Amino acid sequence: xxxxxxxxxxxxxxxxxxxxxxxxxxxxxxxxxxxxxxxxxxxxxxxxxxxxxxxxxxxxxxxxxxxxxxxxxxxxxxxxxxxxxxxxxxxxxxxxxxxxxxxxxxxxxxxxxxxxxxxxxxxxxxxxxxxxxxxxxxxxxxxxxxxxxxxxxxxxxxxxxxxxxxxxxxxxxxxxxxxxxxxxxxxxxxxxxxxxxxxxxxxxxxxxxxxxxxxxxxxxxxxxxxxxxxxxxxxxxxxxxxxxxxxxxxxxxxxxxxxxxxxxxxxxxxxxxxxxxxxxxxxxxxxxxxxxxxxxxxxxxxxxxxxxxxxxxxxxxxxxxxxxxxxxxxxxxxxxxxxxxxxxxxxxxxxxxxxxxxxxxxxxxxxxxxxxxxxxxxxxxxxxxxxxxxxxxxxxxxx
Length: 399
What we know:
- The structure is a single chain.
- 28% of the residues lie in helices and 21% in strands.
- By secondary structure, it is α/β, with parallel strands linked by helices.
- The strands form three sheets. A seven-stranded mixed beta sheet has the order 5-6-7-8-9-10-11. A seven-stranded mixed beta sheet has the order 15-14-16-17-13-18-19, with helices on both faces. Strands 4-3-2-1-12 form a five-stranded mixed beta sheet.
- Helix 8 packs across helix 10.
- The longest helix is centred in the last third of the chain and has 25 residues, at 318-342.
- It is elongated and about 85 Å long.
C-alpha cells in the first residue's frame, strides 16, 4: 500500500496567510506545507483540500482513479468545487467499515474531539491509521493490533501517540508520520528534532511512502541529558521529549521543602505541566531506579541530586572533604554513571549548567560548581543525546 501526502500542513496551511510570526516567516521551500490530504494507492482520498488535483500532479500522481473521498474534519469539508471526475466527499460513521472495490477496507475510528479518524487496511494487509488535527482515539483497549503506519498531529496532540503506544497500536516498527504541521513549532530543524525525540518524522508535501517499510523510522534516544541555566526552559524541553510516551516516572530530587512557599510554587508549576498518566516519586536514590525495568524516567534534576550527595559525604566541611569526603563523592558519581551506562530504561535527565557564570565568592560554592561540572560530564558521556537549552532554544551537543 502506497501513501502520497498531497499536503502535510494545518488546515490553514504553513505559512498561514498574512501571519507575521517568525515560524511562518521561516516556512519556505520544503517547509512550506499545504493543508493535509492523503492519497492511498491512487484510489482513496482522505480529506479534499484546495488545489488537490495540482498537488497530485506535482507529486506525479493523478486523481483520475480515486473511487472514494472521505472527510475527517468535524465540518463537511472546505468550501470548494469538487474536481471533475471525483466522487462527492463523504464520511463513514464511527465504528462502521467501508469496503472498496479496490480491495481496501476503511473503518471509522471514534475520537475524543469532533471529527473522524480512519483505519485503512490495504489489499496487501498493511494497516494505516489517519487522524485529523486535534484528535486522539477514544475508547482504545489493549492489546491492539499494531499499525504499520500512523499519520497524525504529533506536535499538537502528543498524548494521542502516547495512547496508541499504551495499547500496542504503535510499536517500534510503526512509521509515525507527523501532519497538520502548524506555526506553533518552528519549522525545519527544530520541528524535525522534536519529532525525532518522539520517534516520529515529517516529510515534504508530495512525498510517497510505502506503508510497512519502516527503514526510515527514527530511533528514540534511550539516554538524554538536558543542560541549561536558570529559567532557560530545560525542564520544559525534558518533559516535552517524553509527552508522547505513557506511564512516565517523574523522579523529583528536590523534595518538598516544607514551609518554603516559593519552592512549593515551583513544584506546582512543574506538576501542572505533566500529563495525568505520569507518576511522581521524590527520591535521590537513582541507582536502583536505573537498574530496574519499567517506564521511562525523567530525572529533574541532577543538580539537586549532587547537593544531597555532597550533604551526605560532608563536602561542605574542608576537613571532612579532605578526610574521605571527596573520595566518597567520586564513588557516588561513578556508581550513578555506571548505572546510566547499564540501564535498559529510557532516561531523560535535567541538570544546571553553572560553569559559565560568575566565579562563586565562597569556597563551598566553587566546590559545588566544580563537582557539578564533573557530574554533568560523567553523565553526558553515557548518553546518546546531550542538549544545551539557552533562552528556550535547544542546541544539540551530541546525537
